[in-house]
Amino acid sequence: MPARAPAILALDFDGVLCDGMREYVESAWRACRRLGAGAPPEPPAGLFESFARLRPLVESGWEMTAVVHALQAGAAPATLEQDWRPEAWLADLPATREAATAALDRVRDEWIAADERGWLESHRFYPGVVERLRGLVAGPVAVHVITTKEGRFARQLLRRQGVELPAGRVLGKEARRPKRATLRELVAGGDAARMWFVEDRLATLRDVTAEPALAGASLFLAAWGYNTPKEREAAGRDGRIVLLALDRFAADFPAWLEG
Ligand SMILES: [Mg+2]
User: Fold this and answer.
1) pLDDT tens digits, residue range 165-212?
2) What's the CA gap between 170 and 13, in Å, rounded?
3) Are residues 67 and 101 in the same domain?
4) How many domains is the chain partitioned into structurally?
5) Could you tell me the distance, in angstroms and rounded to a whole number, from the CA of residue 225 to the centre of ligand 1?
6) Which terminal residue of the chain has fewer beta carbons within 10 Å of its beta carbon, N or C?
7) What separation in Å is there between the alpha carbon of 97 and the centre of ligand 1?
8) What span, in angstroms and rounded, lies between the C-alpha atoms of 97 and 61?
9) 256 SS3 class
10) Which domain holds residue 247?
11) Per-residue DSSP letters for 8-46?
């Protein structure tokens, strides 16, 4: 029987707290141009919709440049969905993972320097999330944000909403380890059952279920995030994972477990 409330609450950022779809498309487009792909200055019509459909495929930022390049090259979203090969598309750009990651970070830094307000406003927090976070930050639960983007970008977006987490509680890609390793460290020396983790990517949750040290942790798939109906169904059938709706996230912890 899991505890009725966590001592440690680990939250993914994109697709759980914040929807930055407009920003991802724009930044990935600019990064592709930066990487030398012969792309026109403005994203073509329909890119946003196709990208949004494919966003569940993305684990890390560099893959977003692969999505944009594949779509720009004329690949059909349905084909990419069935057979997603980000490394191959990146090689086709051509770029390496490191170059794509660096280009994306640089594009973001330049956008923020030129138009911070426009950058911030290309993101929106999901309804009720900011209020929930503000309530949590003032309480006894240790809230951690674990993201595959640079931690400073997530921190800046949270700060804008008046959510200031203590130092070290926003763990981004600068941590250079998979989320399961970060989670393992968070519970090191303690009881994993004290930790709850909310994530919108099913594959990441599945990876966590393979970690013996995290066997007692409660795992939630954010139904409102970047995942597909098929993945939500699979999560619903998975005894280890709880499919969480946004209204439950906004409610008190015991409601989260009332499947
Ligand atoms: Mg996510």
Assistant:
1) 999 999 999 888 999 999 999 999 889 999 999 999 999 999 999 999
2) 9
3) yes
4) 2
5) 7
6) N
7) 19
8) 9
9) helix
10) 8-19+125-256
11) EEEE-SBTTTEE-HHHHHHHHHHHHHHTT----SSPPTT
